[in-house]
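Sample intake sheet
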Amino acid sequence: MVVAVNERIVRPALPRCLFALLLLVTAEAVAADVILHAFNWRYADVATAAPEIAARGYRAVLVAPPLRSEGNEWWARYQPQDYRVIDHPLGDTQDFLAMTAALSAAGVDTHADLLLNHMANEAWRRPDLDYPGRRVLDLYAADPLRHERLRLFGDLSSNLYSAADFNAPFCISDYNDPAQVQSGRLCGGPGDPGLPDLSDNRHVIAAQRTYVRALRAAGVSGFRVDAAKHMGYKHLLAVLSPDVIDEAFIYGEVITGGGAGHPEYTAFLAPYLERTGHAAYDFPLHASLRRAFGFGGLMGELVGMEARGQALASERAVTFTLTHDMPNNAGFRGQLLDPVDETLAYAFVLGRAGGRPLLYSDHNESGDGRWVDAWRRADLTAMIGFRAAVDGTDMAVLAHGLCHLVFRRGGLGLVAINKCGYAETVTISLPKSPLQWGVPYRALLGGDDLTITGRTLTLNLPPRSARMWRIEP
């Protein structure tokens, strides 16, 4: 099947950048690697915000799954009916193409949330496993011109999948059993038949390969693989083969409660990394953050994590302080950090070397109000600017204790974090340090500028605070 993103779709011109936004752009921001998770944003809103997204230093945006789905709830985007068109309350194929064009013109990559494991749970509506089903096919037929404009690939007069394309129906009961997790259904509770789980037969794989190629042709350069732990490696590797992804950045959502030594890490994340070569969400690092910032935790927990298997190798890691599941799904809310600790954790994640940070920003789907327009926060923008300014430098921890962690980035930058509710004074010895004497280091995040004048450096760290300094260019 030949991928044919409909050529009649016209990509509108990029909205003009506001001069005020351009003032935010600095030469070093080009090197940043931060991904904005535009959770549940309309595609048109992402397109409009593209100049500001770039100006604030983001280099990629993770957007809602590009497929057909129904329902206004955020979770409805994860109930795919059809891959062959993009059509849901957040936008359609034309909106998607306009968005990728706007982001590309601003120098920002588009990452798509990719659902390959299951189709929508429509047992409440119909008994069959035909997708998208007769009702949706009739909608296509009722407005053929519109749906031809929205078509990514395939023949919209017939179903994409039938019952023969799904695994036997059973709900996962043991989430530590890879065989169940990779072939069973994700179910919501008693009486819920769950999300129909796709098999890895030739027809399923061929359609998904064509879908991914179509998204690549539409301007997507990265893919988050939703529920990656629920798919067999044969299936994943057949769909996301090098000839299909064409150097796109792939990162899997493989949820684990910890790093090396944790049963979920052993059963799922370690094999995923070994067999796929993809990057992954760094759940081991997040578990380390929870331990370090938890009551009685030591900030030294964040030192040497990779060597101890408590963080992923830098080149394979997508790092974060929260994922969209944590505020929006009751079963994950225990993994949320305290609001202040979350900010301090961002200072660590964005200040450290390695990984590709993912920053979450929503429209208050959870009701907490904490992450509305988080992407525009001045402190997070400053942290992203610091990361860009010190890009490519090494990281060395200079001091750590129960409350504090201080590290440098080459000779260009310095980060200090104090998690406790009282001030700390930390004196650091700097023998043979690449940090420069007599040169002002500008405070990017709170506090005053500093200048190193001797072989020791004393830092006064206010309670519950993070500080970042970078050398003046």
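Comment: The longest strand covers residues 465-471. The chain has two domains: 19-389, 395-471.
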